[in-house]
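[recover] target loaded
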């Protein structure tokens, strides 16, 4: 028996300790150093849009943070951007069963309305994009959202008036916010807070120089509930 043990030891046979697998220099890559994907950036951008809609961020803070989102290279650089916002820690909110403004659609291109010694009007039944730029120089721009279809919850209108006039009219049952200034002119946004937390939010930003920028509700106008109409339309074409 002793001879067998001696032979096993001499030949290198016998119980062996498990060997840990080799890694790259034995250093684990921290989660924060993972390269950020487009989906990661979009998730953070959605949190910032929600914070702007709720009034937690003003337009300037939102713009600065969005710039930081698309400059970030890693997940670790993205998380601090929304660390002070409640949406960063709570689970995503489930989609509501219906919308007063139609189903969500991806953000489309920015729409521009320009009036130079002329007028430009957008009204009637039309689908509002996420961002609209309005510029009036010795002219008049009218944006009427009372019959519009909102494809997203947050809509931002950037209005500039120089010796001109920009007027925005909205339904009475949405949220309306704004930030701007007038230089020898008028910048006025009549703030609204909708009773429905899922109602569209319109934010009007900009300035006027010897001109007028005005956003307010149109009395008696309520946004139409399009959900049932769209559902009937889809059934008809299935």
């Amino acid at each position: 028996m002793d001879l067998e043990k001696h032979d096993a030891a001499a030949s290198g046979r016998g119980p062996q300790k498990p060997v840990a697998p080799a890694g790259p220099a034995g250093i684990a890559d921290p989660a924060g150093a993972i390269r950020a994907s487009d989906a990661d950036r979009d998730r953070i951008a959605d949190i910032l849009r929600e914070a702007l809609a709720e009034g937690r961020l003003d337009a300037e803070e939102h713009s600065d943070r969005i710039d930081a989102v698309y400059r970030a290279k890693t997940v670790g650089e993205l998380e601090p951007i929304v660390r002070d916002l409640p949406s960063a820690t709570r689970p995503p909110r489930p989609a509501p069963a219906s919308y007063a403004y139609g189903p969500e659609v991806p953000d489309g291109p920015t729409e521009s309305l320009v009036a130079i010694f002329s007028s430009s009007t957008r009204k009637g039944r039309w689908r509002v994009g996420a961002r609209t730029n309005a510029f009036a120089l010795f002219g008049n721009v009218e944006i009427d959202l009372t019959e519009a279809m909102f494809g997203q919850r947050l809509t931002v209108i950037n209005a500039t008036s120089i010796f001109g006039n920009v007027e925005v009219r909205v339904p009475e049952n949405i949220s309306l916010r704004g930030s701007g200034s007038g230089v020898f002119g008028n910048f006025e946004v009549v703030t609204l807070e909708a009773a429905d937390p899922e109602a569209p939010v319109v934010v009007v930003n900009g300035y006027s120089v010897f001109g007028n920028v005005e956003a307010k509700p149109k009395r008696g106008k309520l946004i139409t509930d399009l959900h049932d109409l769209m559902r009937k339309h889809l059934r008809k074409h299935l």
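[recover] notes: The mean pLDDT is 78.
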